[in-house]
Automatic annotation (TrEMBL):
Cited Pfam families: FecR (PF04773)
Name of the protein this chain belongs to: DUF4974 domain-containing protein
Annotated coiled-coil segments of the chain: none
Lineage: superkingdom: Bacteria
Sequence ranges assigned to domain FecR protein in this UniProt record: 108-193
Species of origin: Chitinophaga silvisoli
Length: 306
């Protein structure tokens, strides 16, 4: 909705001449405005925002939830110039402030990188992984795997999100977050975390892991000691599927494997150190694999599993 349409609809609503379809457009606009308002970036400075709040509150009596939307529309109609100006300035200010506050780190090597965030929380960023962070204890895991040792701050939760929308909130704890091939995983070493995937919220405690894959959510058990071993460059697989093995190969060697086999199958128990050559690992897996029995073909950086 552009400036002229918004101004026109708000004035029509104030005059009581809006159709039901036009009212719905205004409701949709209010929903979008409310969603933007929950963003961590303030659209205007504190003085301007307080002026808007006071002006709008003067128009709003105490109401039930059922009538709240209509009252906000009445207030909005009375404040057309101010709201339209705020709405038009919002995206531009968000963009500039986000660009200034967010930082991107990519680990293009095959060893884990240890990082310190502005709040003194520690991150172990996995090989071939990328994340973004800001000074407000917000992190976006773009791809890969990271272990977070979060500094306690009850006044400001630490939040990790990924591209699938999975959102993990903690106060002070240590956990691993993974995001690969549109699959999200959260596993807790110490403390508790709250994980939200869609409308579903799950609380995880130590030794628990949550996997979110294409709308399905499953929980299993993982050793905290194994999670901590990963921060030292060692991956421990226990009853792992072929999918888990493929991820481990990518994490350690930067090689993406392709296969037509069912990656949900397999039961691998392996300890992969950061000094183990890839050919040695493949040889071991071929010997121990069972249901399915696998064979590898490695040509330069291309690995196929049959």
């Amino acid at each position: 909705m552009d400036k002229n349409d918004l101004s026109s609809l708000l004035k029509k609503y104030q005059q009581g001449t809006c159709t039901k379809e036009e009212e719905q457009l205004l409701f949709d606009w209010l929903d979008a405005l409310e969603a933007d308002a929950s963003n961590e970036v303030a659209p205007l400075n504190a003085t301007d925002m307080e002026a808007i709040r006071r002006s709008m509150m003067e128009e709003i009596p105490v109401l039930t939830t059922h009538k709240k939307r209509y009252t906000w529309l009445k207030a909005a109609a009375a404040l057309v110039p101010l709201i339209v100006g705020t709405w038009l300035l919002w995206p531009r200010q968000q963009k500039s402030q986000l660009a200034a506050d967010w930082h991107t780190i990519s680990n293009t090597g095959h060893r884990i990188q240890k990082l310190w965030l502005p709040d003194s929380s520690v991150v172990y960023l996995g090989a071939y992984s990328t994340l973004q962070y800001n000074s407000s204890r917000k992190v976006i895991l773009k791809e890969g795997k990271a272990f977070f040792d979060v500094r306690t701050n009850p006044a400001q939760p630490f939040i990790v999100s990924d591209a699938s929308g999975v959102r993990t909130t903690v106060l002070g704890t240590s956990f691993i977050a993974e995001y690969n091939n549109k699959v999200s995983r959260i596993a807790v070493a110490t403390g508790k975390v709250s994980v939200q995937s869609g409308a579903r919220k799950t609380v995880l405690e130590p030794d628990q892991r949550l996997t979110c894959n294409k709308g399905t959510v499953s929980r299993d058990v993982v050793s905290s000691a194994d999670l901590l071993a990963w921060t030292k460059g060692e991956t421990i697989l226990r009853n792992a599927s072929l999918y888990d093995l493929i991820l481990a190969i990518r994490e350690h060697y930067g090689i993406t494997a392709s296969t037509k086999l069912d990656t949900r199958k397999g039961s691998y128990n392996l300890r992969i150190s950061d000094k183990m050559p890839l050919p040695a690992l493949l040889e071991v897996v071929e010997k121990i694999s069972y249901k399915p029995k696998v064979h590898f073909k490695l040509q330069q950086d291309q690995l196929s599993i049959e």
